[in-house]
Design brief:
Elements lengths: L7 E9 L2 E10 L7 E5 L10 H7 L4 E6 L17 H15 L4 E6 L1 H10 L10 E7 L7 H8 L11 H10 L9 H8 L3 E3 L8 E3 L6 H6 L2 H17 L4 E6 L7 H9 L5 E5 L11 H12 L2
Helix pairs in contact: 2-3
Length: 299
């Protein structure tokens, strides 16, 4: 039973190129509430990243935090080349249909923001987008090559830790861009990222995602990246709903130049920068949550 303190875990069957796979999602708030907010995570993360924000908003929204395929409680795909944004978009459309609502508000961090752009830009015979309001957290159609190289250096690489504390330290070393967090906050973000991995050496932990999610990421060529960027700009320019673009002021993934373009074309997103943060704001700090809340709840 979900509550203001803990979500319920639910699943939906989604169709992919290799058949059906289960996508898990964490549901906060009243299941009968027609006002739904979907929070979609980044490349190597999972839906529990949004626990703090969900607790803040679940008296107003039914907050849905999916584990994208290959992460968290969702199924791993038999073909790693299925770990691509168009497939994630299709799965999220199925999830929205399961929720039984005509529209949702969407908040997406990094990869989750690209999924949101895709879902929000889908043409509809009715003329009504599936997404009413869109919050894009530190991502845009152009992704800086230096950030791609940084992420590619660790995504899918084998790692094992003896304790959750050791894992937290290791994950912090590649996540400093998330900005300042207390030890308690960082451990709370880390624990859902881990799955037990006991072996002959004793108890331990490993990352709670399929290492194969890195295969299509590393297979991308400069030509593929350029084509992907062009398609993302086309999708972005089709958006018509109110949009808020969040940016870590020190982000190496979303440049200030790209953010400026996003404020001038397509939905002309309102841009808000968070100082002292890189890629990507976790939306745990009260000041960050306040910006999101004000945008989503404004008329």
């Amino acid at each position: 039973m979900n509550s203001i303190n803990q979500p319920s875990l639910e699943h939906v069957e989604c169709l992919g190129a290799s058949g059906l796979h289960r996508v898990a999602y964490w549901s906060w708030g009243d299941a009968a509430n027609p006002r739904v907010l979907i929070c979609a995570h980044g490349l190597t993360r999972q839906g529990r990243d949004f626990d703090t924000l969900a607790r803040d908003l679940c008296t107003t929204y039914r907050v849905i935090c999916p584990d994208v395929a290959g992460r968290g409680q969702s199924d791993w795909l038999p073909d790693p080349m299925g770990y691509v944004v168009p497939n994630y978009i299709a799965a999220m459309v199925t999830l929205i249909a399961r929720l039984g609502v005509a529209q949702v508000d969407w908040l997406g961090t990094s990869m989750g923001g690209l999924i949101g752009i895709g879902v929000g830009s889908l043409p509809a015979v009715s003329g009504q987008s599936l997404v009413r309001k869109l919050v894009i957290n530190d991502i845009g159609p152009r992704i800086e090559p230096a950030s791609v190289a940084r992420i590619g250096s660790y995504v899918g690489q084998p790692a094992r830790w003896k304790t959750a504390e050791e894992a937290a330290d290791a994950l912090w070393s590649i996540s400093a861009g998330f900005g300042p967090h207390s030890r308690e906050e960082w451990l709370a973000l880390t624990r859902p990222q881990l799955v037990p991995d006991d072996n002959a050496e004793g108890p331990g932990f490993k990352s709670h995602y399929d290492p194969a999610i890195g295969v299509p990421f590393r297979a991308a060529t400069p030509a593929m990246a350029a084509a992907g960027e062009a398609m993302l700009w086309q999708a972005y320019d089709r958006l018509t709903q109110p949009a808020l673009l969040l940016r870590g002021a020190d982000s190496d993934l979303l440049s200030r130049e790209t953010a400026l373009q996003m404020s001038q074309r397509g939905p002309k997103a309102r841009v808000h920068e968070f100082t002292g943060v890189g890629h990507a704001p976790t939306l745990i700090a009260p000041s960050q949550r306040a910006v999101v809340r004000e945008f989503l709840l404004s008329p």
